[in-house]
Design brief:
Number of domains of chain A: 2
Number of helices of chain A: 15
Low-confidence stretches of chain B: none
Low-confidence stretches of chain A: none
Mean pLDDT of chain B: 91
Strand content of chain A: 5-15%
Largest sheet of chain B: 2 strands, antiparallel
Strand content of chain B: under 5%
Number of strands of chain A: 11
Strand order of the largest sheet of chain B: 1-2
Shape of chain A: globular
CATH topology of the largest domain in chain A: Amidase signature (AS) enzymes
Largest sheet of chain A: 11 strands, mixed
CATH architecture of the largest domain in chain A: Alpha-Beta Complex
Structural class of chain A: alpha/beta
Largest interface: A-B, 70 and 52 residues
Order of helices and strands of chain B: HHHEE
Oligomer: heterodimer
Mean pLDDT of chain A: 97
Radius of gyration of chain B: 22 Å
Shape of chain B: flat
CATH class of the largest domain in chain A: Alpha Beta
Structural class of chain B: mainly alpha
Radius of gyration of chain A: 20 Å
CATH superfamily of the largest domain in chain A: Amidase signature (AS) domain
Helix content of chain A: 25-40%
Distance between the termini of chain A: 16 Å
């Protein structure tokens, strides 16, 4: 059942939908959910990533350090769901503090890909994507700091959308990298993504980086003809099945009457470097609040210093520790200019490069990942894992909106995604283009 | 450049078990990001705002959010209006 269909159900039918989902969640071995918490409000159940606050629910960011912590208030997106006839139902698994690309760094154990349980679901919103892709949720919310909505959506055969920075309130989202984080929808199709996006978007005085600009609800026009830029050099960096799916998507867009132009970008290696300086730097500052005093777990010590050290040593997993240390390194005296300031400057270059392409095009089409979902244990080295995020990072660095949708399958039958990228606050074009491509590709058959 | 893992542990207020392995991984990452040196950024501003048009400002007016007690309730140890910590003055 789609979100659009579920919104038309009676309150009684929506209630029994919750019971059905609860039974399915309990019977499932995907480990997409941490629990099936219910906010008790009527409406269509929406699965919620474990870093979004729902009043009185546990919010753990899949970390030991936040075990036992309950949200004292609800995130703005949750209040917005309630106004839109939806409710929070089920807390989904994620990489610890949203740091990871496979959901393997969760303290609650790994989530499995619904299309092949030997494969990763992607991350960090792997639980939300596996829930939607595995038929365990009508729709879900995730968060995207460097691809954490779009990549798991691509791996699990769903639609995932990252709004323009500032479009959706971050109030009540546990901060990872504040200049990059956005909450967005993971859904079964493009229309549902627009419905859920419309429900959560808009200005919020509780978030000082929320954009105070006019917001018009989306009206999808899949017949609108647009100019789509394809990043030529990106097509050379993906495996054969992904390349084939990308080329079929390009042909589909042409056949639908869109104009395709080819562009080059300076290279994903600079995006990877910039991201893995900026994000850990911001994370090291954001995660300094977790010290055993105000939230969750505390490991007692003989004095305050020992309490901090023990709590953080036992509370954080290795990937989080690595990023905190990396962040502290790039911000430390003697290295700050060479790393952090350099990366901030390169963000301007990345943003300018996009702006130039958008002078000639309405949308950009790019791969989401270099390959479809890989098997557990394939990538163990942190740097290699970071490199696998190559196509999604620059969108967050520039603050742009993007949507990932399934466009094909590889020879193992694993879903392959493609993403559209639009100008700041032009989510309308994103949905128009994605809807047009979705119709022609007819992924679900 | 050599990573001083103990200094980073101190700055981060945490300890890692596998010091050598983590130092090696951080070293690899820092060597990789050196590629930014290939880009000429001399004439570029050193600050960046993700929000198009910059971050808005508001009047500095105090508001009562009413969640203070709810927040304190979630702390590992709190009493009245305070978080409780071990003695910090001998």
């Amino acid at each position: 059942m789609t979100l659009k269909e579920a919104l038309n159900l009676s309150p009684e039918e929506q209630q029994s939908l919750k019971s059905e989902l609860k039974a399915k969640i309990e019977a499932s071995d995907l480990n997409a959910y941490i629990d099936s918490s219910d906010d008790g409000c009527g409406g269509v159940p929406i699965a919620i990533k474990d870093n979004i606050s729902v009043k009185d629910w546990d919010v753990n960011c899949a970390s030991n350090i936040l075990k036992g912590y309950k949200s004292p208030y609800s995130a703005t997106v949750i209040e917005n769901l309630h106004r839109g006839g939806m409710s929070a139902f089920g807390r989904t698994n994620m990489d610890e503090f949203a740091m990871g690309s496979t959901t393997e760094t969760s303290v609650f154990g790994k989530t499995l890909n619904p299309h092949d349980k030997n494969c990763v679901p992607g991350g960090s919103s792997g639980g939300s994507a596996a829930a939607v892709g595995g038929g365990l949720a009508v729709a879900a919310l995730g968060s995207d700091t460097g691809g954490s909505i779009r990549q798991p959506a691509a791996f699990c055969g769903c639609v995932g959308m990252k709004p323009t920075y500032g479009r959706v309130s971050r109030y009540g989202l546990v901060a990872f990298s504040s200049s990059l984080d956005q909450i967005g929808p993971i859904t079964q199709n493009v229309e549902d993504a627009a419905i859920l996006y419309d429900a959560i978007a808009g200005h919020d005085s509780h978030d000082s980086t929320s954009a105070n600009i006019e917001y018009k609800p989306t009206v999808i026009d899949s017949d609108r003809k647009m100019t789509v830029a394809v990043i030529e050099n990106y097509l050379e960096e993906v495996d054969a099945p992904t390349r084939k799916a990308m080329e079929e998507s390009i042909e589909a867009l042409k056949s639908a009457g869109h104009t395709v132009v080819y562009k080059k970008m300076m290279g994903t290696k600079y995006d990877i470097s910039t991201y893995y300086i900026v994000a850990p730097a911001e994370a090291s500052a954001n995660l300094s609040r977790f010290d055993g005093i105000r939230y969750g777990n505390r490991i007692e010590g003989d004095n305050l210093e020992e309490l901090y050290l023990k709590t953080r040593t036992e509370g954080f997993g290795d990937e989080v520790k690595r990023r905190i240390m990396l962040g502290n390194f790039v911000l430390s005296s003697g290295y700050y200019d060479a790393y952090y300031i350099k990366a901030q400057k390169v963000r301007h270059l990345i943003k300018n490069e996009y702006e130039q392409i958008f002078n000639e095009a309405d949308l950009i089409l790019s791969p989401v990942t270099p390959s479809a979902a890989f098997e557990f244990g394939t990538i163990n080295d942190p740097l290699e894992m970071y490199k696998s995020d190559m196509f999604t990072l620059s969108i967050n660095l520039a603050g742009l909106p993007a949507i990932s949708l399934p466009v094909g399958k590889d020879d193992r039958g694993m879903p392959i995604g493609a993403q559209f990228i639009a100008k700041h606050f032009d989510e309308q074009s994103l949905f128009d283009g994605a809807s047009s491509l979705e119709k022609i590709i007819n992924y679900k058959g | 450049m050599e990573i001083d893992i103990e200094k980073l542990e101190k700055l981060s207020n945490l300890k890692v078990q596998n010091k050598e392995e983590i130092a090696h991984q951080l070293q690899d990452i820092l060597e990789y990001v050196e590629n930014l040196g290939e880009l000429d950024t001399d004439a570029i501003e050193s600050t960046f705002s993700t929000l198009e048009g910059g971050t808005p400002v508001r009047e500095d007016v105090p508001v009562h959010s009413g969640v203070a007690q709810d927040v304190l309730k979630q702390a590992p140890n709190a009493q009245d209006d305070y978080f409780i910590v071990p003695n910090i003055i001998e």
